[in-house]
Amino acid sequence: xxxxxxxxxxxxxxxxxxxxxxxxxxxxxxxxxxxxxxxxxxxxxxxxxxxxxxxxxxxxxxxxxxxxxxxxxxxxxxxxxxxxxxxxxxxxxxxxxxxxxxxxxxxxxxxxxxxxxxxxxxxxxxxxxxxxxxxxxxxxxxxxxxxxxxxxxxxxxxxxxxxxxxxxxxxxxxxxxxxxxxxxxxxxxxxxxxxxxxxxxxxxxxxxxxxxxxxxxxxxxxxxxxxxxxxxxxxxxxxxxxxxxxxxxxxxxxxxxxxxxxxxxxxxxxxxxxxxxxxxxxxxxxxxxxxxxxxxxxxxxxxxx
Length: 305
Ligand code: PPE
Hints:
Elements: E1 8-11, E2 14-17, H1 28-32, E3 36-37, E4 40-45, E5 48-52, H2 54-67, H3 76-89, E6 95-103, E7 117-124, H4 132-137, E8 139-143, H5 164-176, E9 181-185, E10 191-194, E11 198-203, E12 206-209, H6 220-231, E13 236-238, H7 243-247, E14 251-256, E15 260-267, E16 270-271, H8 277-290, E17 301-303
Parallel strand pairs: 8-9, 8-15, 12-13
Antiparallel strand pairs: 1-2, 1-7, 3-6, 4-5, 4-6, 5-17, 6-7, 9-10, 11-12, 11-14, 14-15, 15-16
The protein binds ligand PPE.
């Protein structure tokens, strides 16, 4: 997707012009995929722009960094403030937010602890990740022939740049075959998640989602949906899912910051159909919450002003 350019990017404590946000070609992360990052969204609310669960995303960034022995040279509070600063500097009412911590210039090779760690936060307006039609009527998913990277090879608990090669292989495969999004199975053949989303199915009126031990990222949207379900008296539990559990699902949907809540209409050409009642309920509630229209979930919003 082309990136809509805005004015400023926050880099290592300063706002720099979009065109000047550059790094050296010998940056460690460019060669070895050794960075960690986040994807966050800010939404327009009656009280101005609000970032959805900013603190939880920043916490995950530090967890990802700790897995890779990466000391982030800022405090979480500083990165929370920097996120607001860069949104204000660009005058955005709603946007996607991409914080990234990289191993910078100065070291080559596979023992990078001496490399400097650089941090940047970019923001840009980003529409529906899997399309407006997808949000309304559902997307066509296909199980990729590429398996989700095993946790003891590349930990799925971290959101590291290099591990996305796995998702890119899966995504290219299914999009070139005419589908919208890839589902990845783990090494045991159980469902892990989508290329860039977690996955839920409805069975017997209850929500099921793969556990993080199956290779699913600990998604912030996933957690939000689980809490919304609990508050709405919709049973929800973590369970290993077989590929065929997707084929026979009463309803299914993806969740993610970029994707938001997206119904799945088909998996491997098995029709699930138009979004069902539980998907709709969860989706409607999610959009009300992020837009600041649900009082009881206000604590999930971090207002920019
Ligand atoms: N699984 C994967 C593999 C994943 O990349 C994401 C987020 C999720 C689950 C959902 O996590 P959360 O956003 O916390 O609910 N993917 C991010 C990057 C997408 C991209 O194309 O880049 C995102 O949604 O921001």
